[in-house]
Design goal:
581 residues
């Protein structure tokens, strides 16, 4: 039982002396016994009623109404009637004979019509805060009245409209303005709230105090302008009142999100299209106002059309957008001209220069130009090989030095050349060229250079500086077969032809006998372009190989040596012709 929210009839009885109170109780007891029934005890003023009344609260959105909970704890009983009195002190302002149940909230009740001021056809004369007394009765006749069940906040609901004037090129101020009105309870009519102070504070400015701006008879306020206003600056607006006329508060932040700049034209050029380490690019340009009159019209004020002393920002960019990491701020001279020098910067993926205004009150379309800023690359060697036919093959990857993994799309398609030098210092010549793969920058280059020094080099490009791999020396011994002879000449068909030759290899720059080494014997028939292998032989200790074969047709004979892990294939191609009859 929620007895703490109920008011008993005993609490409303007049105070009496101890003697008279005892006499009354005794008299009541005698009457009850005389009646022979215990029902009279339920009417004892000291017995709490089973009916309860909750706290009455003003509606948030319509202050001409209020709601209250009412209930009964009596078994099989319901609340049948809820009424209310609205009073100021001891004076009852209006009475509501029957509150209506709230459809969506059983047990809660509200006035059937909203309360209004007398001027709006209602019964309440003035704005203010009024006490609410609520009486509830259940179906068994139990009743209770809760005095001061709540307060009716019958005041204006304030509404604040606030704005900031837009600053301009020639008037960089912003004036706070707005209107303060109140919604009347019941009717909802908007009426001006005059003579009130609105607090305005510019945020982010040290030691600047809040300003108070008063509303006039129409609820309008207009403060002193703020100077040197910038886009993005924020202003806090505050208002709070809790009186007999107005109850409510506002505290919100507004920003300067736009301005009216001076629109001009900018032109600029750069002295180079590619900047390398140790170099710098010089960007020069001019600001001018194509809309400024050469001479102001008679009777019009003089307008400052000078573009001297204006700051512009010149920096590197990416895809035509200012990067912001490498910039120079320069000031125009008396003729509106400016010059900025930008150095080579390693480690940044940049491809342009960009000119933008510094002053937000100055507006011109950005000026940009293409600029190659090659970055450092590195070429790794993963495999190296020198084949017996003299072909050197180098494989590896080409990567960005500063961003080896995240920018591999840039390292694809880069030109690479395979170069050879006899001494590894001078006389580099190109054996082959190709491009790196898009990911992960892989390359494989092959070219015939025989013994000597090899490297892979990346020539200078707009994306990357010149770079090369480590120099790699690879060697094999050269071989040759001398004195290839097929005899007898001529020879009768079916008779044996003996083919001989001497194999040598180069050791320490000197040709020496290469014994116990394999050779192959080849034959090309007269009128044919194809060599056919006849068989194999091995050289003796003097390097001489001998091979015998029955003659069938006219043709040429030769010997070859296929290199091994230490020797090249024989480089010469001596041939001997035999006439078969």
């Amino acid at each position: 039982m929620r007895s703490d929210l109920r008011a008993s009839s005993a609490s409303r009885a007049p105070r009496v002396s101890r003697v008279s109170r005892t006499s009354v109780i005794a008299a009541v007891t005698v009457l009850a016994l005389a009646a022979g029934t215990a029902q009279a005890l339920a009417d004892d003023p000291a017995t709490p009623s089973p009916v309860g009344v909750g706290r009455a609260t003003t509606d948030t959105f319509q202050r001409g109404n209020f709601t209250v909970n009412a209930w009964t704890d009596a078994p099989q009983a319901t609340v049948t009637k809820v009424s209310a009195k609205i009073r100021k002190g001891d004076t009852v302002v209006t009475e509501i004979a029957q509150l209506s149940p709230v459809a969506y909230n059983p047990g809660r009740f509200q006035a059937p019509t909203v309360l209004k001021l007398a001027e709006d056809g209602g019964t309440i004369q003035d704005l203010g805060k009024y006490a609410i007394d609520v009486t509830a009765t259940d179906s068994l006749g139990n009743t209770v009245t809760r005095t001061d069940a709540g307060t009716l906040d019958f005041t204006l609901t304030p509404q604040l409209d606030f704005g900031l004037s837009t600053p301009k090129w020639n008037d960089r101020t912003s004036r706070p303005t707005g209107t303060l009105v109140g919604a009347q309870p019941g009717s909802g009519d908007l009426v001006p709230i005059n003579g009130r102070g609105i607090s305005v504070l510019r945020l982010g400015v040290a030691d600047e105090a809040a300003r108070t701006v008063a509303t006039d008879d129409l609820g309008i306020f207009s403060g002193e302008p703020y100077t040197d206003v910038k886009v993005g600056e924020e202003f806090r607006v505050s208002y709070n009142e809790d009186s007999e006329q107005v109850h409510g508060s506002f505290d919100f932040v507004k920003s300067i999100y736009s301005l009216v700049p001076r629109s001009i034209k900018a032109t600029a050029t750069a002295d180079r299209t590619r900047v390398l380490p140790g170099q710098q690019v010089t960007v020069t340009g001019t600001l001018n106002d194509p809309n400024a009159p050469a001479t102001p019209a008679e009777g019009t004020p003089q307008v400052d059309t000078s573009l001297a002393g204006q700051q512009v920002r010149v920096g590197f960019g990416s895809f035509g957008r200012e990067d912001g990491r490498v910039t120079r701020t320069v000031t125009t001279d008396a003729n509106g001209r400016f010059t900025a020098k930008l150095p080579f910067v390693p480690g940044l993926n940049l491809d342009s220069w960009v000119v933008t205004p510094v002053d937000p009150y100055l507006s011109f379309p950005k000026v940009t130009g293409k600029l190659a800023i090659p970055q450092e690359g590195r070429i790794t060697l993963e495999t190296v090989a020198l084949a017996a036919d003299g072909t050197g093959t180098l494989t590896g990857t080409f990567r960005s030095w500063y961003n080896p993994w995240n920018a591999q799309w840039q390292t694809g398609g880069q030109k690479l050349v395979l170069e050879h030098s006899a001494d590894g210092r001078t006389g580099w010549r190109t054996l082959a060229s190709g491009t790196s793969k898009t990911y992960p920058g892989f390359y494989a280059l092959s070219g015939k250079g025989f013994s000597g020094y090899y490297r892979v080099r990346h020539p200078l490009s707009d994306q990357f500086l010149e770079s090369s791999t480590a120099i790699w020396g690879m060697y094999r011994s050269s071989t040759r077969i001398l004195n290839v002879n097929a005899s007898p000449e001529p020879v009768r068909k079916g008779k044996t032809v003996t083919v001989t030759g001497k194999l040598q290899h180069q050791v320490g720059g000197t040709w020496k006998t290469y014994g116990n080494a394999p050779v192959t014997v080849w034959f090309k028939a007269k009128g044919s372009k194809t060599w056919n292998k006849l068989g194999s032989a091995k050289t003796n200790s003097s390097g001489v190989a001998t091979y015998k074969k029955a003659a069938t047709v006219d043709g040429w004979y030769t010997m070859r040596h296929s290199g091994d892990g230490y020797h090249f294939n024989s480089s010469n191609a001596y041939e001997d012709y035999v006439d078969v009859r």
